[in-house]
Amino acid sequence: MLRKVEFVALVVFLGLASAVYADQITLKNGDHLSGTVVKSDGKTLVLHTEFAGDVTIQFAAITEIRTDKALHVALSNGQTVVGPITTSDGKIEIVGKGGAPVETPKESVVAIRNDADQVAYEKALHPGLLEGWNGGANVGFSLTRGNSQTENLSLAFTAARATKTDKLSLYTNAVYGTNQLAIPSTTANTEAGGIRYDRNLNPRMFGFASADFTSNALQELNLRSVGSLGFGYHAIKSDRTVLDFLAGGNFTDENYTETNTTVTPPTTSKLIHNYGALTLGEELMHKLGKSTVLTEKLYFFPNLTETGEYRGTFDLGLVTKISKWLGWQNGFSDVYVSNPPNGTRKNDVVLTTGLNFSFAH
């Protein structure tokens, strides 16, 4: 009987000891939670518990925090203090190594990180050039035979590398289509690519510089080169929705091959347009549920050299995840040019659908 009592006392002692050395969270409703504080962004706090796994708690609902191990606490004044956390008189106290305790209102806490999250955060501030990239590739293909003989191929690639201070984006796409029973047989032949660099000026404002290149054989556009500079504003910036407005200026160089069909045989000549223009744009990213992402871009480029002439672009995309790396994409784009070469149309509309392959590095 004595041995049973001793065994029960030992179990109780070990249970109490584990509770004593675990991090303690007290909520406004009086509930007490034990576990290990993982991280906080000042809005929510993640507590790892033994039986429930990671539990997310509203930071405003917490009245008391007591941690056993040192944590990295980032404050609104830019200071980061490392040490165990306690609360006293409604304030948070961090006891640093060999220093006086730092006491601060709970509202001034911007983030709390354990050692692993702090290492990841510091690495995200200054990643290597080949680190931190996310993107995807779209592939679409269709083929018909019999009464028609068509082949259509669409390819697209996007990649972005975002840090706490800047963002670098790359893109390229191509659409090619033929109809062997038609004259001319080529029904689509466009290529585009570009690069953009964004630099954050504050949480809402950013500056940008970009270079874009486009060719369109059916519009007799050999190459359009556009270099842009300007500023952007995050009207909405959340994990679910990002809405940006952009404004700036650009220099555009257009090289066309113009065909004169009024003479026999037809002759060709080069048509060059060089001009300054405004860059006015709007970009949207919105998550529709857990697996679908909607993207939309609308740009207007009024010509400042030849007033009344302009160019506009509209892009709409939808990607639905099938797995972690595979999805289904649908895209629509419209490019309008007010002054194309004689004999070509002002509008070019492209609709694509196919597979999306995403990656992260």
Task: Write structural notes for this entry.
About 10% of the residues lie in helices and about 65% in strands. The chain is mostly beta strands and about 350 residues long. The protein has two domains: about 25-125, no CATH class; about 135-360, Autotransporter beta-domain (Lipocalin), CATH 2.40.128.130. It starts with a helix and ends with a strand.
Keywords:
12-stranded antiparallel beta barrel; 2 domains; single chain; Lipocalin; 2 helices; 361 residues; 9% helix; mainly beta
Number of domains: 2
Q: Indicate the percent of residues in helices.
A: under 10%
Please work out how many helical segments DSSP would assign: 2
Order of helices and strands: HEEEEEEEEEEEHEEEEEEEEEEEE
What's the multimeric state? single chain
- Tell me the distance between the termini: 61 Å
Q: How do the strands and helices of this protein lay out in sequence?
A:
Blueprint: H1 2-21, E1 23-27, E2 32-40, E3 44-49, E4 53-58, E5 62-66, E6 71-75, E7 80-83, E8 85-88, E9 91-94, E10 102-105, E11 109-113, H2 115-125, E12 133-144, E13 150-162, E14 166-179, E15 186-200, E16 205-216, E17 221-237, E18 241-260, E19 267-288, E20 292-302, E21 310-321, E22 326-337, E23 347-360
Antiparallel strand pairs: 1-2, 1-5, 2-3, 2-11, 3-4, 6-7, 6-11, 8-9, 9-10, 12-13, 12-23, 13-14, 14-15, 15-16, 16-17, 17-18, 18-19, 19-20, 20-21, 21-22, 22-23
